[in-house]
Amino acid sequence: xxxxxxxxxxxxxxxxxxxxxxxxxxxxxxxxxxxxxxxxxxxxxxxxxxxxxxxxxxxxxxxxxxxxxxxxxxxxxxxxxxxxxxxxxxxxxxxxxxxxxxxxxxxxxxxxxxxxxxxxxxxxxxxxxxxxxxxxxxxxxxxxxxxxxxxxxxxxxxxxxxxxxxxxxxxxxxxxxxxxxxxxxxxxxxxxxxxxxxxxxxxxxxxxxxxxxxxxxxxxxxxxxxxxxxxxxxxxxx
Length: 238
Description:
The chain is of the alpha+beta class. The protein has helices at 89-113, 138-153, 165-170, and strands at 4-5, 15-24, 27-30, 32-33, 47-51, 54-64, 67-72, 82-87, 117-123, 126-131, 158-164, 188-194, 198-201, 216-223, 229-235.
């Protein structure tokens, strides 16, 4: 049985009510969840499920087909139980800010340098992205850093849309990665649009305005190959 992915339409949902549809020891599936299961370089959420006054820590969240499995710190509630989910909001919001910062970085690099993404990863308030650059220098990354922070200050709105697969395939700039990573079975493509800067197919969680990202610092860069250069960023804590 599938799980309704509440995070796809509302990244700011911190608490939610749901029903357990399957249970196997510490692993439970809910009919709907705000917990992001990880993917696209973004780690899974953490938090807790509360059932009849008992709190179970959510230690891992993962996809299993159409279902999202919540792994708990001990055997959890049985199928049919009503639960309330509570996200570790500080962690989630830090990941939202970080993910959006990486999209801003991607948008700036694509717009001004035409370089595609070859990889990326993130943790709360830090991340890295690899691009198809032949060369990289301190002057270039400082220039990119300044442009990223200008886009943060521009307070651009961010919205989520859903396109059918054919419409997504006709969008020339929707896939910024060197390799199209959209699985063939996906017929509805979730799109994150930073108004006037960046539009990408993406399943992760984001803030609603670039101003929420805060200051972005390029803390490192390195060569990962002839045409593969890494930029590492860090965000302020507030």
